[in-house]
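During data preparation, we tokenized the protein backbone, and the record follows.
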Amino acid sequence: MWKGRFQVATADLVEQFGESISFDWRLYSYDIAGSIAHARAQVSAGLLTNEEFESIENGLRQIEGEIERGEFEFSTTLEDIHMNIEAELTNRIGAAGAKLHTARSRNDQVATDTRLYCRTEIDLMIELIEELEAALLNRAEKYAATVVPGYTHLQRGQPVTVGHHLLAYIEMLARDKSRLLDCKKRLNVSPLGSGALAGSTINLDRQQIADELEFSAVTTNSMDAIADRDYIAELLFNLSLVGAHLSRLSEDFILWSSSEFGFCTFSDAHTTGSSLMPQKKNPDVCEITRGKTGRLYGNLVAILTAIKGLPLTYNRDLQEDKEPLFDSIDTIKLTLRVNAEMITAMTINEDVCEAAAADPLLLATDLADYLVKNGVPFRSAHELVGKAVAESVSQNIPLDQLDLTKIDSAYGEDAKLVFNLQTALKARTNPGAPSIENVKAQIKRWKGE
């Protein structure tokens, strides 16, 4: 590539240290698409004949087919996917191949390739998120009315339903999809034609190239176009947040599947055993999901660290953007797939959930609400219910079996009517609250009915 300037060949260790073909080969289809669009613009500019363009396109398609079939031999001496393809093309078709790089740089090539790659992968990840949403929605619908304790500080708080609990994660995933779509809008801008940093005196039609590659616009500053990796950092942040949501879901399921909770059971196909303890059935999918979230965070920090002190424009540090990007995308795609499959096969142990939800302390707040409705200020009501709970604990008598009228005259004989789960849930009619009717309405909304 630079033999005119250098008199000594690159050292073997430097080649080994600097090569990226071992991981950036996966950009081949995007590199070829960009090269074809670039060559077509060269025809429009009178730099290539139609015959030369046809030779270039056919040669690139042949190379693409060989890569897809695993027949293409990559060379680390050519460093990256761009030069591996261009060198082989020139070797096959001669002078026309040597003309291809006119008015472009590997700097704007790689910026174009990674944007195209991210755009495609975002669409695929959104599809996988929707598959996970469908799995959660299926379980939410099946167990829409199954009452289960809701928790704060991992202590029982108030009654909800399994359906309401699972729908919370669909809300999170919907925001994840929205962020990915926003990211896609920002990255869908073509940098091709920005050259190494200042464009070229040979002015190709950048809009023509952008249109062919289905970019929504072209970049408007050549230096920023080459230096920009915001879209990768943004995408890795978005994937980190997807990971955070999956990790929280996993933590819930790890607890729910434990003997102490017993709320859910995973299929044998989605759990593992112990090499020592024959009774074990471990929620490994959930635990690995939780662990991989740290990996996603690490990849985000890696790209932020790589770009934090770079002067404009291109610096070789930017080669370090691809491995974190590829790894995060691979990680999140597999994680989404396996979780969707696991949740589809998961069962909720309704009898255990209902037994846990029968704890009358879950309705302590409802008892305070009862007092408020009878004219007691909330802070006073809170204190009176607290006294009742303390009495329940000290006397080892369930709250719903205490004679509340002996604790304070504010309690009437009808106070015991508060301790009815169905009544308590039915009263929670505000938007977003977990009445069964609300849950069923939200399920219909998510199903598009």
